[in-house]
UniProtKB/TrEMBL annotation:
Record's keyword annotation contains Secreted: no
Location within or outside the cell: Cell junction, Desmosome; Cell membrane; Cytoplasm
Lineage: superkingdom: Eukaryota
Annotated organism of origin: Calypte anna
Annotated TM spans: 12-32, 77-98, 110-131, 151-172
Protein name, as recorded: p53 apoptosis effector related to PMP-22
GO CC list: cytoplasm; desmosome; plasma membrane
């Protein structure tokens, strides 16, 4: 019988793997043009974190304006980007923490604290964007916040979950490292 508990070597890498997944979703959110899109035809509006594009009904070319001309656009991009950079640093620290035996649990809680900071920065950016976008940019037709914006929120949710696990992981250090003798319970017939 094979049991993969917390002491299993492969299971130790789940948290860094989840952080890597959050980084991939963050890259998609940063590069994606689907933060805001027209909901139905004619598709006349689309926006990314960096610019807003519109076109007329019969026009094939997009007319784009930079959101970096607005203070809120710079604030939303900066806060999300700062959170993303700290996330990449946390990923590197997590890989180091789980690779080197001596350092493993010395700074795992610190990584969890940094991940809460990442989540705060990303949430600020993800809230500033739709609130100020709908106030300052004239919207045409029916629009929706779309897939790239959703990837930003998905990255944030994964980061929050990992932050809790990183903060709680040192409480089970002996179980993770396999330092506890198994307890057997016998019942008499």
């Amino acid at each position: 019988m094979v049991v993969c508990g917390l002491a299993c070597w492969r299971c130790r890498w789940l948290l860094p793997l989840l952080l890597g997944l959050a980084i991939i979703m963050g890259i998609i959110a940063l590069a994606g043009r689907g933060w805001l899109e027209s909901e139905s035809e004619p598709y006349v509006q689309q926006a990314s974190l960096w610019e807003s594009c519109t076109r007329g009904d019969g026009d094939l070319n997009w007319n784009c304006e930079s959101l970096m001309d607005y203070g809120w656009g710079r604030a939303a991009a900066a806060t999300y980007l700062v959170g993303f950079v700290i996330l990449v640093i946390c990923f590197a620290l997590a890989v180091i923490a789980f690779s080197i035996e001596i350092l493993r649990f010395n700074f795992v809680r610190g990584i969890g604290g940094l991940l809460f900071v990442v989540a705060a920065f990303q949430i600020i950016g993800l809230v500033i964007y739709p609130v100020k976008f709908t106030e300052d940019i004239p919207l045409t037709g029916d629009n929706m916040f779309s897939w790239a914006y959703g990837f930003g929120w998905a990255s944030t949710v994964v980061v929050i979950g990992c932050a809790f696990f990183f903060c709680c992981l040192p409480n089970w250090e002996d179980e993770v490292l396999g330092n506890i003798k198994p307890t057997y319970y016998y019942s008499s017939p």
